[in-house]
Amino acid sequence: MKRVDRTADLLKALGHPARLQIADLLRHGEACVCHLEAYLGYRQPYISQQIMVLRKAGLVAERRDGTYVFYRLSDPRVAGLLDALLPEDSRARKQVTHRHLPCFCPVCSPAEELIT
Residue 86, exposed/middle/buried by CB under 10 A (0-12, 13-18, 19+)? Predict the structure, then answer.
């Protein structure tokens, strides 16, 4: 029964459109909240709230780099599930592109570019 309960928890955590979008982006690699904010157009507190649900379910892990936190999928089943559930045209691009807002994290704005 534990396996079934764990799978039900996974599906509950993914049972929200914003969390599905976040998981879809993270399956292509890690991203900081500012990346997710720039791509999805949601505000930072909302994204952080949704990530907290994914973290509590054990689906997302984090890596700290100074003041920035980068998130990635920690459960490999999620990528396979997203492949099966989301049609190709609705999947996130492999490279997170910034649709709405600029991203100022160290990955997008290296220190030498900020000096100029």
Answer: middle
φ, ψ of residue 74 in degrees (nearest 5): -110, -10
Check if the beta carbon of residue 1 is closer than 8 Å to that of residue 49. no
Average pLDDT across each block of 10 residues of the chain; the chain has 116 residues. List them in order.
86 93 90 89 94 94 90 89 76 47 68 46
The CATH number of the domain holding residue 79 is 1.10.10.10
Give the pLDDT score at 1: 76
Number of domains in the chain: 1
CA torsion through residues 54, 52, 62, 69, sign: positive
